[in-house]
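look at this fold:
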Amino acid sequence: MRKRETLPNGFDRGVVTTVHQGDCHVSNESDVTFSTVLGSCISACVRDKVSNVGGMNHFLLAEQSGSAKNRFGAAARYGAYAMAELINIVLKQGTGLKKNLEIKVFGGGKINASLADVGAANIDFVHRFLSDEGYRITSEDMGGTFARRVLYTPTSGRVRIKRLDSEAGQNIVREELKIASTQKTVKPADDDIELF
């Protein structure tokens, strides 16, 4: 859904594209802002600082990783694929140099005390994945007991985060549970994920 919005504090949202669970969007248009709402899910925002190409993904790992063929485990394969997809597209459309990437990560909240802490598992996963691939996180806002709305301008790397109240958080929990119960994991054609 695309619509143009400006906030009173001067954050010009421009044309807003909503990033839903399972999505990955990349742009080099200066008037584009990506928007998502996160509970225990994670969104990574990756930008090539030289070419000003950037993007956002949104993923949920349904359970903590166990043993599997690859180093991330079966449950984490979707997260690994989502991260690799975003990084590869930004590299391909940008300068192609890993050193030019700025990486920001958000989400991983524990917004329902009666559920397993999927958010903590997601935070551990994204930290480990980026470290193993030789990337450094520029900034992050993860954890806590609240949901977040994240606005990200891909060409500038500017982020605005709004912490949401508990009622909104419970709606997000219901939505995440519904999606997680029906979600078929999207995975690469083979077991290898290549980052260039």
Remarks:
- Residues 77-93 form the longest helix (17 residues).
- Strands lie at 2-6, 12-18, 24-27, 32-38, 42-48, 53-57, 101-107, 137-142, 148-153, 158-163.
- The chain has one domain: 2-182.
- The first strand starts at residue 2 and ends at 6.
